[in-house]
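Notes from the pairing session

We agreed to fold both candidates in a single pass and log them together. This is the raw record for the first candidate, unedited. Please don't reformat it; downstream parsing expects exactly this layout.

Candidate A
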Amino acid sequence: MFKFTSLSPVSLAVMTALTSQASFAADEQVSSQDEIETIVVTADFRGTEIDKMPSSISIIDQQQIEDEGAQHFEDVLSSIANFNWSGATSRPRYFQIRGVGEQEDYKGAPNSSVGYVIDDIDVSGLGMVSSMFDMQQVEVLRGPQGTRYGANALAGLIYLKSNDPTDVAEHGAEVSLGNDDLRTFSGFSSGPIDDSGKLLYRVALQQHSQNGYRDNLYLGTDDSNKRDEFSGRAKLRWYATDDLQLDLTLMHANFDNGYDAWTLDNNGFDTLSDLPGEDSQKTTGAGFKAHYTGFNGVELTSLTSFASTDHTHAYDGDWANPDYWASKLCDGSPCQYDYLWRKNGERKTWTQEFRLTSTESNRIFGDSTDWLLGVYVMDLQEDNALYSEYNTYPDEVLDSEYEARNYAVFAQLDSYLGNGYSLSTGLRLERRDSEYQDTNKDAFDPSENMWGGHIALAKNLSQQHDAYIRLARGYKAGGFNMSLPAEFADKKEFDTEILYNYELGLKSAWLEGQLTSKFAIFYMDREDQQVSASQQDPNRPQRFILFTENAGSSKNYGAEFEANWYATDNLHLYTSLGWLETEYGQYQYKDKYGSIKDLSGRELAHSPNFTYSLGATYRTDSGWFANINTNGKSEFYYSDSNDSKSDAYNLVNAKLGYETDIWSAYLWGRNLFDEKYGVRGFYFGNEPDLDWAAKQYIRYGDPQQFGLTLNVKFL
């Protein structure tokens, strides 16, 4: 991890040796219609154009990422319809698509509803290491991806695709400075390694740091919630023969962030903790792809990935300090309240996939059907050490070991039926074996067989309009709850969740392709819905009893709309709108006092009824640039276990600048009107002087930000 307090030799070397991709010369831009036509879904088996994919997919391309000045995935996720995240960590790690997803994971048997993949490297549940620098596009596939990704993609998939090596040399750098002591140094280099042009490379580096918008009044510091984030990627592409292409991807991220985000009085930004928390993640990963086209009528693809992650999440559970609690408690009993919670984890994930894909010369059923067959193996191991301390004494100590192995076979047929009709069918059979043991003598070894897939019928209505209807079945493995007290013995295990997604969509091009739109309506039927429940322990109010249980069936339905309009050669307008209705089926739970709470029919957590965004970019022929964008959400419940709710909010961002072929300069601002908005909330008792009476506590998102970005490039 590099720490910059001034322009260090490392940063100067990066700035002078590498280049940013944020320079846009008017004479080098591809026409807007051509740009739209070349957007493909790289997470798909065949790399299909987005307008031809019979499903609801959002792609945020490199142009929008750079126009909006996005530094991290957190900066672009609000542009995605029916998408939300839980602010339980320093950077977004837990996501919800169409109301389905996790809000936190405190125990250590990972089982994600939303898949997260960076350049074919699986980091599901660990998505906070997501720098947007040198990113080609962000893809969000809504609904179960049962054929392609299986058990880790019940709700959908987030796929980040970085830029590939280029056959011409390009290098340069970028630096950003802003309030909150924000400093970001970035650079990349790409091109051929030798004169043959068969061996290409690309390297991209970024160091980002800022104080984190919190003032710790007790310690007298302004960086207890800091962000100190390094991201690096390297790619090597070798055209070994005319039939064999090899791609090696290496990534390393070291996010050494603080976590001091909660206050007792809910002011949000002035903390009192004496032991500020930590939210760090160090991930090293590698991906190797081999694509061979030398067989007669068949292409072979091999995808191998490995990721090793060390992560720590810790917080000051009393959210204050000894002096504060002495002033509140010493006139009564007890006189002390001090609580610390920490979990250290080590995760290793290895995946291997082989697939055979037909070529045009080897179609079946009268040369009308492309086919694909594949096998998949994944091994995930995670060791965790959980420690909490209450009033200087150990409160909970738990060391655990977990391993899950997934084996899958899958197939897909894409048939051309004539008269503009096409049919896609897919099936995946998956087995999951897992083992868990811990120092509390809990041990589980569940195994199960699962299946999922899809069937989608598409119709080309005209040259401008494509419609589709899709049915997809997804699944999420069952599991177990560790370290539960005796009275929760019936909660030890929970069942597999099944999700059926019914979807109808229309993708259109208007005004000779200058305006494109995508519209989808959906209905989701969840069987044995998995719900994250929590109960404050009445005998030890500093501790929570956390478990997952099945809540019967539930129904989600809604719609998504997106549009892109290149109104002129200089003006680009874009928008997204999501509508979502969710509700529990029959679900009741018992609170800490033994009372039955009935959530049947209530909306799901982190599922706002409306999400929306609107943006505009204008470039003059002389080089001036402006972007303004806004996004927002309606109110939503924070938790599955109580009725704590957020307020609706709207954020406005802007970026102004001047661009040349060699250099560019920008002024930018995020959350321009300093909106105070909640991203995570709890409703519980955390103040012994109030006799542990429950109340709502809120963690707020980033306040107003502004800064300056300079970049330069060399060809």
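Candidate B (folded immediately after A)
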Amino acid sequence: MVDNSFSPKEKEMLKSLFRDLYRYTSNIRLSDDIRQLRSTISRAMTSGGGVRDRFGIHPILHGMSTAKALCEGVSADRNMVIAIMLADLLKSESLDVEEIRSTWDEDVAKIVEGLQNVQDLYKRHAAVASENFRNLMLTFAEDIRVIIIMIIDRLVLMRSINHHPAEDMVREVALEASYLYAPLAHRLGLYKIKGELEDMSLKYTNRDMFTRIARKLNETKRSRDAYIDSFITPVKAALEREGLKFDIKGRTKSIYSIWNKMMKQHNDVEQIYDLFAIRIILDVPRERERSECWLAYSLITDMYQPNPARLKDWLSVPKSNGYESLHITVLGPDDKWVEVQIRSRRMDEIAETGVAAHWKYKGIKSENNLDTWMNHVRDILEDAQSGPMELMKNLKMDLYSKEVFVFTPKGDLYKLPLGATVLDFAFNIHSKLGCSCIGGKVNGKSRKLNHKLTSGDTVEILTSNNQVPKLDWLSMVVTSKARNKIRQAVNEINNRSAELAKELLQRRFKNRKIDVDESLMMKIIKKLGYKTVTDFYNAIASEVLDVNDIIAEYEAFEAKIEAVASAAEKTSAEEFTMQSVVKEEGSGDDVLVIGDNVKGINYRLSKCCNPIYGDDVFGFVSAEGVIKIHRVNCPNARNIRERYPYRIITTRWSGKSGNQFASTIRVVGNDDIGIVTNISSIIAKEPKASLRNISIDSHDGIFHGYLVVGVENTEVLENLIKKITTVKGVKDVQRSN
């Protein structure tokens, strides 16, 4: 049987909490609210509700404490108070949402459901410390009021567990408050709550340090108070003489802030001097706020020397998040720097009650969409005339509507774009997992690769060693990571298949005792219509092409080339006359004698050595059936003679030279004025040569030039090289291949 009774001490707490809540809600509750609440809570308690939490705290006491803290720290809102009182009963399943909806209204039910959704996240054993968990919590809450209640709820819990014997549980709650709820409170501008959460978090995780700083603050309080009094006294007198209405208060740095500064500066508490700041709050109509703030500034800086580098003017240009204040640092008595903040009553209330969410000022990382949305919240809180929370219930939290947050079975949380599938999730975790993925279990149900995920899903990836990525997977994913990995994996598979197919083809050629000519093989690949070698070999691997057919094609092509070479060797010199490669108007024909004077066969002067009339040359029957003319000293000559001796044809020049051949001359010299002009002039004066192209590159006073000239024969070229060598500044002239 569940013990949901109250101890005498708890009964006294209940009475006190009821009186406080009765007073706080006097202007917002409806006449029947208290009766309805009592009736609902009594029925829930009778049916097994009121189960104490893991710290032994009764849910009714916790709910009333949370409702009171909400009224004190944020706003007394009817629907939020009712939702707080009912949320724990819904969690214990002694109450359902439909009953809340019928007894109260849709808005109360909406808040309670939001609280329930967020609480359900904790059941996933998620990595709460991750930023993704915070984002998912904001997504599940759907209502900013739910987040505010969660922050207040955690504040009340932290207050309740001081000196609780379950130290590990206390530490867990404290760390969670520090990295999750305190930053959220800060973003909403709930600075007092944020400061208290941080202080208690330090207290529960490092009690010795907390106690040490607290004692030090108490020890120095009297001297600090005396110093502040000596600083404030003349300021008060000056402000009063000007007829200003104001309050002055000192603000002590929180214990957590002091500890944080000690960690950053690697100092001890005795070396932290800016423990106090003075705040002047002026009671002034809005239209005179700026002028009177600057008047106060003038009075203070007349008394104390200001530090111009420390002036922060957020009056003239308020911060983008709406924060308004004037901060100055002055040199007070005993040459100690004191920070003074000057603002109006309106500005102070906004900052203190959470309207000016200036988290950027505190150095907290911002997110554009979250910043914009929080600023919208600030505007509503600031401008609302009849209860800000009334307007907030219509403010939809769709900050992460373009993203989904998904759990692993172990509770790890991942963020993916909207529309992400099981396959996206697998690749997001690890590319190896994605490549072997055959589907997944989403919330315990089997799903296909292309199943789209929603926020809060728990996904278990199913794999198979026989699975391989396919190109059609690209239509199943939306993340660039998955797309890139799929393409990469498919390419790797194709490359491996191509390599195996190439090895197979080479073995077959070797078995047939055929030496493969790569250039001839490329011709065959191109003839078969394949754009890349990999595509060709993949066609073999997938059995689209038969290896025996390819070998037969190769042998037929090779036989055709040998037939052309044989015909060239048997043709007489009298029948074979070929045109010069370069023809110019009025020139006659040059004659190349190929083999036994074969004619009617195409030839081409090779570009690797650019032979000209007079060079020792030979012919080579290429894979295309064209005879290429090479110089005997061509860089490729040795390789050609060793690999294809049967395709070499003796060739020589015959007849008279009358046409020009293109040849390249390399010139190196000093980068002197006029040197290029002098070289060009020499070529222009040569009757049997012409300049066709010139390219010059100069570096560190040395130029390298390449001259393409048209010459009739080697004799003309050699004479031209000798003449260029005589030009002043030229260091080296050579014929280039």
